[in-house]
From TrEMBL:
InterPro entries per UniProt: MORN_2 (IPR011652), TPR-like_helical_dom_sf (IPR011990), TPR_rpt (IPR019734)
Naturally occurring in which organism (per UniProt): Mangrovibacterium diazotrophicum
PROSITE patterns associated with the record: TPR
Keyword Nucleotide-binding attached: no
SMART domains named in the record: TPR
Protein name per its UniProtKB record: Antitoxin component YwqK of YwqJK toxin-antitoxin module
Signal peptide: 1-19
Biological classification of the source: Bacteria, Pseudomonadati, Bacteroidota, Bacteroidia, Marinilabiliales
Length: 1086
């Protein structure tokens, strides 16, 4: 028996990083074709290309398990079958059957029987399951049990030749020759020319001559009541017709010919009863007799002899043979009714079938042809679809419905007045989705909806199937997210939305289903976000919008939902962003003005009847230039900032964007390139780094991104790759670090994070995966480098996630509710003390954040609002001295940011807006001397200054190509050096103090740190050195005491602590060692 490593199977199933763009259906069909050709290894390779997030993954696993079975890799077949069974899908029966067969092949009979029985519970009328179970029983001498199974399989599919063959062997081994002949001849009629046909024909011939043939098994003690066939068996054994006086109907010398003639003549076709052989075979053989088809039957049975006489007959009597074949339909009579237990006792029921022969329904009708009593309906895969009772053709009592993969779908109850009681719908995990009370076919009372985790998500009162009365929506925490009211099916009155904290987020008012009157929206910090008025469902009158810092964002006037009159927008620093005019139809009309973040007018647009006809730029003095215009709105344009730097260029056709548009950095490089058709993005959209290198690329069609998206690091390596479908993220998105190593894979369906998502370790192995559903986490699994599971959390039952990595030490704990981070998120040090802590609201950080050093000293503090860093963030040295203070607005650095040396001296003062460096950035040495003033615009270094003879020197502009920034202290000593190539760091950065001592050395390639970075104490002693590769810490980081002794040594791999971290005292003695793997500590040595 061939076997392969189960770990190898696991690796291929989980760790495939091949971008699956070939449709899975096509991959599976290719695999099936290779399977049919006996190319099992190639089929397996094809199947493995179907990833576990694919909707056809369950179907692929069924084919894969069967392929392993075919190549005798039974352990692998069982493993794959179990993996497939862990995934919901319509191929459960297929997988269970393969699993049972594999156990049987391994000789594990009890497991095989248990597996088949489990399958039959879900698929009670699947003939192959009964047949396979019968084979297992038969091979283990359990003949009575085997007979019952083969009777079931033959009933389920009367054209399954193997079932008749096994029934024949069981009868023959009990010397019940009539039964054996009926089954054997049916087998040969169905399968006259296979590799099994001739051996069975020989077996039949020996039996017809009363030769005791034991080649198919020794005789066994009879256990079937054979009284109905005893007389025919007597004729058979006596060989009454095996002589020359009894004429043969065909010219072929074989005992079976005359014995069959005799059998057809003397069988008691008039005797009906419950005997299986009577019900199974009498209709067919009686049809042979009544239709005079004995001759074509015999020549069909003799096909495998290869006799010229047989071939000659078959070639000359095709019409007769075709007519004979039609008698085969008589085998199906046994399917029309069958004994079944639908309501607690075995009864005879009528059966109906799909066109392919699979059971569709089982149940009886009354004399008026109306359904009555218990009924069951089935899917084409054999799974139960629905069950319940009928009364005179109408549903009565409880009805239960299932999905094609066997999960409970819904329940309902009926009386003679119709649907009455609770209608309940279920998720595939068994939790309720919907509970709706009915009375007399009308929804009456409170209808409740639930989420996948069983938490109530909504409830609304109904009256006569219309929404009537109060209603509520809920967060997964149980807090009310919205309260509203219905009258006669329409929203009426106050509609109030809440944050998960319980604070009001918005207030609306409805009249007869339409928004009417004032409305207000709030930020989570209580600040007003917007307010205005609605009239007949549309915004009306003046509307005001605000930023979360309380400053005005926009002011507009609406008429019938359209902006009319003046619209003014502002930056969050209070400066004007735009002033635009609109006509009564909501079209731009007249002047539209645009400003930069300093409040300077940069661009003017003029509209006529909604068509742009003129574009102008303005200099610092407010004078218009670079004017482009056309009365028809067809023209090329270029706009500039007040400093004369090009901002945008493109074309309009009758006021609509068309052709290629470019946006520019301050340095003149293109920052974005787009194409428009009829005013919508169409074709490639590219973004670039300031040095001209491609940053990302995606294609648009009719204004939506489609197809592949690729984002690059500045060093040219892929950073992100994924796919869009209908404008939404779709399929796998893969993420890489700046070294080009895969770090994560996320799977999306219609923009929602769904299915399994993967994270990879610094060493490249799969370190964890999460199962998601619509953005919620269902489970979290961690793995070691061998692929073994080291940590498993089921978020459907557990209320927290713990990150342990490959060790058993708690690194992080996150409280959860309904698959979402809710509550505290805490990281720990190896000794169990808190490293950092923040609170989560519906998966987003909210409120204060703190981080500590290992000695308990505060390292960082700040706050979050709605998931964004906001306000002042403070950073501290381990000594407690302040290291930096930075302000954030909506997760971006904003305003002034100051850094300090440990002695309290100002090190750096920067100015930010919307996350970009803007204006002057001052850097000082630890003696308070100015090192350099760097001048930024939109995060681009434009120039620099330094002190010379007590004053700042003239601004030195930064230019393209190779450029070196050099600055000096007022005493003439060098303070700062930086090598640039096309505005990107390329070479070294060196910083000095005013005494001439070098303090910092950095090495760059492609704007990323590389090689060794070094920091020095004022005495020249090395303070810290870190090894970098492509901007990531990679290798050793060494920290030193001022006396030169090693203080701490950290092992890094791709920016994650990986390997030993060692601690030393001031004498150089090792005092502690902590082992890390992929950024998580796994062991401590003291």
């Amino acid at each position: 028996m061939l076997k392969i490593s189960l770990f190898t199977v696991l690796v291929f199933l989980i760790n495939s990083v091949c971008a699956q763009q070939t449709p899975s259906e096509e991959l599976i069909e290719k695999g099936k074709k290779l399977y049919d050709e006996g190319q099992y290894d190639q089929a397996i390779q094809q199947y493995r290309l179907v990833l576990e997030n694919d909707s056809n993954y369950n179907a692929m696993m069924a084919e894969l398990a069967m392929t392993y079975l075919a190549k005798n890799s039974y352990d692998s077949a069982i493993y794959v079958a179990n993996q497939g069974l862990a995934v919901s899908g319509a191929d459960k029966m297929h997988l269970l059957r393969t699993k049972g067969t594999a156990y049987d092949a391994l000789g594990e009979t009890d497991k095989a029987i248990a597996t088949y029985k489990m399958a039959i519970e879900s698929y009670p009328y699947n003939y192959l399951l009964h047949f396979n179970l019968g084979i297992t029983y038969y091979n283990n001498g359990m003949y009575k049990e085997a007979l019952a199974c083969f009777e079931q399989s033959a009933t389920g599919n009367p054209y399954h030749a193997s079932s008749h063959r096994m029934l024949a062997l069981l009868a023959a081994r009990q010397k019940m020759y009539t039964r054996a002949l009926l089954s054997l001849e049916t087998f040969l009629a169905l399968e006259p020319a296979s590799s099994r046909s001739n051996p069975m024909l020989v077996y039949l011939e020996n039996m017809s001559g009363n030769y005791l043939d034991t080649s198919m098994g020794e005789f066994i003690e009879p256990f079937i009541d054979n009284s109905i066939f005893e007389e025919v068996d007597h004729y058979f054994k006596a060989k009454l017709v095996l002589n020359s006086r009894y004429p043969s109907i065909i010219d072929f010398r074989a005992d079976l010919v005359k014995q069959t003639q005799m059998l057809v003549q003397v069988l008691p076709f008039d005797k009906l009863g419950d005997d299986f052989w009577v019900k199974m075979y009498f209709p067919f053989f009686n049809a042979v007799k009544q239709g005079n088809y004995l001759e074509p039957l015999l020549y069909t049975l003799l096909t495998s002899t290869g006799s010229d006489a047989v071939k000659d007959y078959q070639s000359k009597n095709e019409k007769t043979l075709k007519a004979f074949y039609q008698t085969g339909s008589n085998l199906s009579y046994i399917k029309q009714q069958r004994m079944a237990n639908l309501d607690g006792e075995m009864k005879l029921y009528q059966c109906r079938y799909f066109d392919d022969g699979q059971l569709y329904s089982i149940g009886n009708k009354n004399d008026q042809d109306a359904e009555t009593g218990p009924w069951e309906y089935f899917f084409s895969n054999g799974a139960l679809q629905a069950k319940g009772r009928y009364l005179n053709g109408s549903k009565d009592g409880d009805w239960v419905y299932y999905t094609v993969d066997g999960n409970l779908k819904s329940t309902e109850s009926y009386t003679n007045a119709g649907l009455t009681g609770d209608y309940t719908d279920y998720y595939d995990n068994g939790n309720k989705r919907l509970v709706a009370p009915y009375l007399d076919n009308q929804a009456q009372g409170t209808v409740r909806w639930y989420d996948y985790f069983g938490k109530i998500s909504s409830q609304v009162d109904f009256k006569d199937s219309q929404r009537q009365g109060k209603g509520f929506n809920y967060f997964m925490t149980g807090q009310v997210s919205e309260s509203f009211n219905y009258e006669a099916g329409e929203l009426t009155g106050a509609d109030i939305h809440f944050f998960s904290t319980g604070d009001t987020s918005s207030v609306y008012n409805y009249e007869a289903g339409q928004l009417q009157g004032p409305s207000r929206n709030y930020f989570m910090n209580g600040q007003i976000a917007s307010f205005g008025n609605y009239k007949d469902g549309n915004q009306d009158g003046e509307w005001l919008e605000y930023y979360s810092n309380g400053k005005l964002k926009a002011r507009a006037t609406y008429t019938d939902g359209e902006v009319t009159g003046k619209y003014t927008s502002y930056y969050h620093n209070g400066k004007p962003e735009s002033v635009r005019l609109f006509n009564a139809e909501g079209q731009p009309e007249g002047q539209s003005l645009y400003y930069n973040i300093a409040g300077e007018l940069t661009t003017e647009e003029i509209y006529t009847n909604g068509i742009l006809v003129k574009v102008s730029s303005f200099d610092k003095n407010g004078k218009a230039y670079a004017i482009s215009d056309s009365a028809e709105g067809t023209f090329d344009f270029t706009t500039y900032d007040t400093d004369g730097k090009k901002m945008n260029e493109g074309s309009y056709a009758q006021g609509t964007p068309t052709g290629q548009w470019n946006a520019y950095y301050k340095n003149g490089q293109v920052s974005q390139s787009t194409n428009y058709t009829d005013g919508r993005l169409d074709g490639e959209v590219k973004h670039f780094y300031p040095n001209g290198k491609l940053k990302d690329l995606v294609t648009y069609q009719e204004g939506q991104p489609v197809g592949q998206f690729v984002q690059y690091e500045i060093n040219g390596k892929v950073k992100t790759e994924g796919w869009y479908k209908d404008g939404l993220t779709d399929n796998f998105w893969r993420y890489y670090n700046s070294k080009g190593e895969l770090t994560a894979e996320n799977y999306y369906i219609e923009g929602d994070l769904t299915g399994y998502n993967y994270e990879y370790s610094a060493s490249g192995y799969l370190s964890s995966k999460r199962k998601n559903l619509n953005g919620r986490v269902l489970s979290y699994i961690e793995f070691n480098e061998k692929g073994d599971t080291t940590n498993y959390t089921d978020l459907q039952t557990d209320s927290s996630m713990i990150f342990r990595g490959i060790g058993n030490m708690k690194n992080c704990e996150i409280t959860t509710t309904a698959g979402m981070h809710q509550g505290s998120l805490t990281w720990y040090y190896p000794d169990g003390t808190v490293s950092s802590k923040k609170m989560m609201e519906l998966g987003l950080p909210e409120g204060p954040y703190v981080r500590y050093y290992e000695n308990g000293q505060l390292a960082r503090s700040g706050g979050y609002l709605n998931g964004n860093q906001v306000g002042k963030w403070n950073y501290y040295y381990e000594s407690g001295a302040k290291e930096r203070e930075t302000y954030f607005f909506e997760d971006k650095k904003d305003s002034i940011s100051c850094s300090y040396y440990e002695n309290g001296q100002l090190e750096e003062k920067e100015s930010y807006f919307d996350g970009d460096l803007q204006g002057d950035c001052y850097q000082y040495d630890d003696n308070g001397e100015l090192m350099i003033k760097l001048i930024y615009a939109n995060n681009e270094l434009m120039g620099y200054q330094y002190n010379k003879n007590g004053e700042l020197c003239d601004t030195i502009p930064v230019t393209g190509g190779q450029f070196k920034v050099e600055a000096f202290f007022n005493n003439g000593k060098k303070s700062y050096e930086l090598d640039l190539l096309n505005f990107a760091n390329e070479g070294q950065l060196k910083k000095y103090d005013s005494k001439g001592q070098i303090r910092i050395v950095r090495n760059y390639k492609d704007d990323l740190l590389t090689g060794v970075s070094q920091d020095y104490y004022a005495n020249g002693q090395l303070k810290e050195e870190i090894h970098y590769v492509d901007g990531l810490k990679d290798g050793e980081e060494n920290q030193y005491f001022e006396n030169g002794k090693l203080k701490k040594q950290i092992s890094w791999k791709s920016d994650a602590e990986h390997g030993p971290t060692k601690y030393f005292d001031a004498t150089g003695k090792l005092i502690k060692e902590v082992d890390y793997s992929n950024g998580l500590f796994i062991a401590v040595k003291n």
